[in-house]
Write a structure and sequence with these properties.
The protein is an all-alpha fold and 185 residues long. It has a single domain, classed as Ferritin (Up-down Bundle), CATH 1.20.1260. The protein has helices at residues 17-46, 52-75, 84-100, 103-128, 133-155, 164-184.
């Protein structure tokens, strides 16, 4: 099996380094916006529950991540994804819908999304190689928070949610599709 392409080992058809950086900023901005909206939806339903303080903490971290990518969009002259309004509505709906199923389902949503994002950020970090060290550091910082969110969801009963495997598989598939689309559109 050949190694994944990085900026150090580009293959024909791979994006140029500047284009890869733009794609990374675009998709990560979209993802952080979507994640913040998921937590907004969860808090709309679970705002007075026992897990609300933890969800608020995660939401604040996502808002901080989004602010960083807001700044990077401007600094690197990257247009945001054209699908922003879709992520706005879809993120909120996903958060609210899973919260309506209960705290454990909301935590299952968190686990599913954050597992996909952990892998996504790892791949981005590897693809950057030694290029764009400041962006790579931001990605690694965000990734650490996403892993913390996943672990918090697991600690708060995500795996005991009814239909956990089916629910998380569907959310992971949707998250992967969102990443693919936001990278390109």
């Amino acid at each position: 099996m050949s190694p994944k392409p990085t900026l150090d080992r580009r293959l024909p058809g791979d994006p140029q380094p500047a284009e890869l950086v733009k794609r990374i900023i675009r998709v990560d901005h979209a993802g952080e916006h979507g994640a913040a909206r998921i937590y907004d939806g969860q808090l709309a339903v679970l705002g007075k529950s026992a897990v609300a303080p933890m969800i608020r903490h995660m939401a604040e971290q996502e808002q901080r991540h989004r602010a960083v990518f807001d700044r990077l969009l401007v600094e690197h002259r990257v247009r945001p994804t054209l699908l922003g309004p879709v992520w706005d509505a879809a993120g909120y709906a996903l958060g609210a819908a899973t919260a309506l199923l209960g705290e454990r389902a909301a935590m299952a949503c968190t686990v599913a999304v954050e597992e996909v994002i952990d892998e996504h950020y790892r791949q981005q970090s590897e693809a950057l190689g030694e290029h764009a060290p400041a962006l790579k550091a931001i990605i690694e910082d965000c990734r650490a928070d996403e892993v913390e969110h996943r672990d918090a969801g697991l600690a708060h009963g995500a795996e005991q949610a009814p239909g956990y495997e089916t629910l998380t598989a569907a959310i992971k598939a949707g998250s992967r599709l969102a990443i693919w689309l936001a990278t390109r559109i």
